[in-house]
């Protein structure tokens, strides 16, 4: 059996894996990315193609290296279609936004990792995790049909939603979050379509609820004539016929008459809070494999890039100090929670409200709310709402007062949760206490919304 011994082994050549690898390689350490796809197929990932925060990316693979994949940088707002109210709601998107060619972007980040000095092993399927006395020390895989092992100081899981590594590893004695189930994820399907004439809304991300309460459709313009169209639904709900539901809506949109399908692909993505802890001895999880996705929008590229940077820097520090324990890797958790983890956890509270309230009534209410406040809530997890605005909203939303009350109560719980994440512990010894307090806050969320416990 062939054995490789890099300092760090990373599973998955997506955004998180490539940014972690580039960070580690630039520091002079040996790092290998293990990728199940071939060199031709690597980087081909189902995605909505919208990149939030396009103006700020980690320096290991700088923005200039991925900019050739930015096909539309004129998008500046979301366009929410609310059929039951016969309304269209335009919501500004703060910061820079781009729609990308996801395959081209995938190739560019792999190239960036290789230029930094990382090795990429394609056609390699991981089958098991190697552990010694509870510490993850390597991987067992098959490469082009031959058995192979990777032994390293640190293993990083960047293998995507519902990663096999977390099923194979024994993480029961670690702080690593194992409170994960399929119902916390969404199933999604998307196509890239070429249309005959430029669409009128090529400066917007178009979103629309499906006929089913747990589903949503999107129409994201890569260019004015090439559109990423897709549909997703929460896995905890009754299954949907994704393709047929999408086709039904497309048939009612004249701009897609005679459209040509360029590409099609499906995937699962987390619509849950980030993992409470993404570390175990010798092991870290990043990106979709750790729930690093905005649970209200499904956006995960920027979060995965920074999680890769933080995991890479934690791995370097652990190797240099000779401490790959949970405590030695713990700063990775802290940096994720400080940057976006707490915000995403607060946003997940609104997902819980949607599940309990039903999308129809909530969308009707949203049509009465100020766009800039919805923008704050969608991207920051909170929004300031003064008395005057409350009164004006109450008058406009007369038919939705019950839902309005639930929304404001939920906002208060989200704010309290966000405050709690600002006190994320400095050491794993303090983790159980912090987690118990957070769970107490979530009990209030469930009581406020009437929702079943999500976790």
Question: Radius of gyration in whole Å, from Cα?
Answer: 22 Å
Low-confidence stretches: 371-375, 387-402
Give me the number of helical elements.
12
What is the topology, as strand order, of the major beta sheet? 7-6-15-16-17-14-18
Q: What does this protein look like?
A:
By secondary structure, the protein is an alpha/beta fold. The chain has 12 helices and 20 strands. The protein has a 7-stranded mixed sheet, sandwiched between helices. A 6-stranded mixed sheet has the order 9-3-2-13-20-19. Strands 1-12-11-10 form a 4-stranded mixed sheet. A hairpin with a 4-residue loop joins strand 16 and strand 17. Helix 1 runs parallel beside helix 3 and helix 7 packs antiparallel against helix 11. The longest helix is centred in the last third of the chain and has 32 residues. The protein is globular and about 60 Å long. 47% of the residues are buried.
Notable traits:
globular, alpha/beta, seven-stranded mixed β-sheet, 455 residues
